[in-house]
Amino acid sequence: MTGFGRVFSSDLLKLRRTFVWGLAVLGPVGVIALQAVNFMLRYDWLTKLYAEDLWGGLIDNVKWLGVPALMIGLAIVASMMAGYEHQTNAWKQTLALPISRTAVYTGKIAALLVLLLISCTLLAIGTVLLGVLLGFGADVPVGKILSSSYLPLLAAMPFVSLQVWLSVTMKNQAVPLTIGILGTVFNLYSSSLNEWFPWRWPYLLEGAWSPFMTVVAGLAVGALLYGVGMNHFRVKDVN
Amino acid sequence: MNEWIVETQILTKRIGNKKIVDGVDLQIGKGEIYGFLGPNGAGKTTTIRMLLGLAKPTGGSIRIFGKDLKREKLAVLRRIGSLVENPSYYGHLTARENLEAVRRILGVPKSRIDEVLGIVRLSNEANRPVKGFSLGMKQRLGIATALLGSPELLILDEPTNGLDPSGILEIRELIKTMPKEHGMTVLVSSHLLSEIDQMATQVGIISKGRLIFQDSIQTLRARAQSGIELAVSRPEEAGRLLLSVGCPSERTDRGIVFRHQSDDNVAAVVKLLVERGISVYRVEEKKASLEDVFLEMTGGEGSL
Prior knowledge:
- The complex is a heterodimer.
- Chain A is an all-alpha fold.
- Chain A has one domain.
- Chain A has ten helices and no strands.
- The radius of gyration of chain A is 19 Å and the shape is elongated.
- Chain B is an alpha/beta fold.
- In chain B, helix 3 crosses helix 4 and helix 4 crosses helix 5 (about 135-145).
- The mean pLDDT of chain B is about 90.
- Chains A and B meet through helix 1 and helix 5 of A and helix 2 and helix 3 of B.
């Protein structure tokens, strides 16, 4: 196995019996449950509002809850994963092993992405189930549900990179968590912001930039922050 | 001289304007138990962190197994097992899972886990979450982790810190078996001289970032030689008298002290003094402990 593969499998093992799995499930389940309540309470009004495209209305509603959940969730999970290493200063053990720091850092991001992908998948499945239960018909817009479930994650890559960087390099997790929470709040009110603000990107709104363009921007800035964070991690002294 | 397992040259670590480690030349031979001794804050842990590539030196070089650490870091680290300060562990995982997390990175066979658990006698506790372990058990798990990759060099930083006496004894005995049974070289640091005295074959003493002593434990012990103290009525005169017969001495509050001599010589000195009319009140043997030597070398910085 390559260095990265070995670190990655070790990282997944370290998450055994931790609450990060619960969070990864709780996030999408919570979003779908809230939307179920929303649609059941206001069924007549909402079905009249979205009469032309019932599925589209549901997908949009899910997105407006799902994106903030994704933003706060990735900050919390990144912090928890780094926290297991910080708690007993396990960094000095891990980094004294014959493994490159690049692999260690990439392993952490990869483990976080696996968890987020699970969340996105559950969100997609949940959206389908909810739509069918609400009687929106068997004509499920699979492509739209998939892109609305997974693309926000790609557009949110700058935040994945940023939160991993902060959580891994700072012992005090209050700082990355605060930044993550503030970012989520900012994200909630970002739809009126200019295209250049990354907080707006995960919603993939139609505007001056197409959703495709937004995803590309998200991946590019995410990759850039990943590079900057890793370089910092590589030269950092470990206490 | 044989090839050194660890050799540093003017190894230096500066943080801001302060030199935490200042021009340290460590030399550790194969099969030795090298006791790395110094008061808290003298630079032991920083030196060890540099040996493990956890911190970057600001000056000097490190060669381990004859290889430059900077250039061949991963190949060198593969042959080192380490435990730095407090044990690192994942509390929610069992002892076995903790070892497995490291095993996956090292890529050694699964059977090694049971072997190292056996060595540190944790086999019966293997499937319990580590957060419920006593400090001694966590420390043993840390040593098991260090042994997992069958290292040729074992680096243990303060492995007995915070343990009770039986835990200390246990870890010490474990360390002593390593060179004999597994052919390892061990670098073990401590701020307790008595600890090092009981297991090390070589000693390096660091104080305020500088290596002030590096030699065999016997050489260090030889420094702790005993002397003979005489309580006499006219110390000054007695001192001059002894010097005239070729026996230098030093003044103490009660009299004079000179280096240990054969019984006959001591008797001769006493006789000489008495003949010259100087009263000898007491003849005592004064033993300087290793602790005294250590304190003297480190300038009295707290060693306990």
